[in-house]
Amino acid sequence: MGFLSFLGLGTDRITRAIRQGAVIIDVRPAPAFDQQGRIPRSINIPVDRIPINIERIRSMNKPIVICCAHGIDCGHATRMLKEKGIKEVYNGGSWQSILRKL
């Protein structure tokens, strides 16, 4: 067990959330999502569109895992969602790293 997993912050928590039905939101721009690959069943909401999709995301009533190209935009999107009261949000990092774990 890694140090981050011990704290409840590691990838084990993200993988478990996905396996239990979490919604995966890929925050890359639409062309990247469409042309560079994606996680099956993930949905695309570019990071700059998160604010206008808060209610849509809230209505999903499921844990949310955020992914992006390299992990940079995930932190920003995760913070936005938590600031709007969505509690069970995970920063999944790059979409490729999540895909390798599934």
Condensed summary:
The chain is of the alpha/beta class. It is built from 6 helices and 4 strands.
Protein model, in words:
This protein has a single domain (11-101), classed as Oxidized Rhodanese, domain 1, CATH 3.40.250. The chain contains six helices and four strands, in the order H-H-E-H-E-H-E-H-E-H. It has helices at 3-6, 11-19, 30-35, 54-58, 72-83, 95-101, and strands at residues 23-26, 43-44, 64-68, 89-94. Helix 3 links the parallel strand 1 (23-26) and strand 2 (43-44). It is globular. Residues 1-9 have low confidence and may be disordered.
H/E element order: HHEHEHEHEH
- Do you know the CATH topology? Oxidized Rhodanese, domain 1
- Count of all domains: 1
Spatial order of the strands forming the largest sheet = 2-1-3-4
- The CATH homologous superfamily is named Rhodanese-like domain
Binned, the helix content reads 40-55%
User: How many extended strands?
Assistant: 4
CATH class descriptor name: Alpha Beta
On the 0 to 100 scale, the average pLDDT is: 89
Strand pairing plus helix content: what structural class?
alpha/beta
Radius of gyration, rounded? 13 Å
Distance between the termini: 18 Å
User: Which consecutive residue ranges, at least 5 long each, have pLDDT under 50?
Assistant: 1-9
Strand content: 15-25%
Shape: globular
By DSSP (H or I, 4+ residues per run), the number of helices equals 6
* Biggest pleated sheet: 4 strands, parallel
CATH architecture: 3-Layer(aba) Sandwich
Please render the helix and strand layout as text.
Elements (H helix, E strand, L loop, with lengths): L2 H4 L4 H9 L3 E4 L3 H6 L7 E2 L9 H5 L5 E5 L3 H12 L5 E6 H7 L1
